[in-house]
């Protein structure tokens, strides 16, 4: 599980990242990132709406898979960004291993990996 110090909190923070951030699309999720003003550790947020799945079990599984992928890659991710992951419908059918590879490739595409 991703430590609390790495999690985004607050509706306004999410809204700010989504309104002014840069988007990168992957097959099963979208990634929106914005440089932090304080330049400290990067923080991450995960959004899985009921449009993706009506079942809470599936939505939570997707959040856990994304969170685990980020936790695994935290040491390699550039500091100083707020990052929001927006799950798509295809995320319900992807395995955790494939999700990890997709997160890695998308972060490379966004130039957020060291």
Automatic annotation (TrEMBL):
<dbReference type="GO" id="GO:0030677">
    <property type="term" value="C:ribonuclease P complex"/>
</dbReference>
<dbReference type="GO" id="GO:0004526">
    <property type="term" value="F:ribonuclease P activity"/>
</dbReference>
<comment type="subunit">
    <text>Consists of a catalytic RNA component (M1 or rnpB) and a protein subunit.</text>
</comment>
<keyword id="KW-0540">Nuclease</keyword>
<dbReference type="InterPro" id="IPR000100">
    <property type="entry name" value="RNase_P"/>
</dbReference>
<dbReference type="InterPro" id="IPR020568">
    <property type="entry name" value="Ribosomal_Su5_D2-typ_SF"/>
</dbReference>
<protein>
    <recommendedName>
        <fullName>Ribonuclease P protein component</fullName>
        <ecNumber>3.1.26.5</ecNumber>
    </recommendedName>
</protein>
<dbReference type="Pfam" id="PF00825">
    <property type="entry name" value="Ribonuclease_P"/>
</dbReference>
<keyword id="KW-0694">RNA-binding</keyword>
<dbReference type="GO" id="GO:0000049">
    <property type="term" value="F:tRNA binding"/>
</dbReference>
<dbReference type="GO" id="GO:0042781">
    <property type="term" value="F:3'-tRNA processing endoribonuclease activity"/>
</dbReference>
<comment type="function">
    <text>RNaseP catalyzes the removal of the 5'-leader sequence from pre-tRNA to produce the mature 5'-terminus. It can also cleave other RNA substrates such as 4.5S RNA. The protein component plays an auxiliary but essential role in vivo by binding to the 5'-leader sequence and broadening the substrate specificity of the ribozyme.</text>
</comment>
<dbReference type="InterPro" id="IPR014721">
    <property type="entry name" value="Ribsml_uS5_D2-typ_fold_subgr"/>
</dbReference>
<keyword id="KW-0255">Endonuclease</keyword>
<dbReference type="GO" id="GO:0001682">
    <property type="term" value="P:tRNA 5'-leader removal"/>
</dbReference>
<keyword id="KW-0819">tRNA processing</keyword>
<keyword id="KW-0378">Hydrolase</keyword>
<comment type="similarity">
    <text>Belongs to the RnpA family.</text>
</comment>
């Amino acid at each position: 599980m991703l430590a609390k110090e790495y999690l985004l909190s607050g509706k306004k923070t999410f809204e700010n990242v989504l309104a002014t951030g840069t988007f990168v699309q992957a097959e099963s999720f979208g990634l929106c990132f914005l440089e932090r003003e304080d330049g400290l550790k990067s923080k991450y947020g995960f959004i899985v709406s009921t449009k993706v799945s009506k079942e809470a079990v599936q939505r939570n599984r997707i959040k856990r898979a994304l969170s685990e992928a980020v936790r695994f890659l935290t040491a390699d991710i550039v500091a100083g960004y707020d990052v929001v992951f927006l799950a798509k419908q295809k995320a319900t059918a992807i395995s955790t291993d494939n999700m990890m590879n997709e997160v890695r490739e998308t972060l490379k595409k966004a130039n957020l990996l060291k």
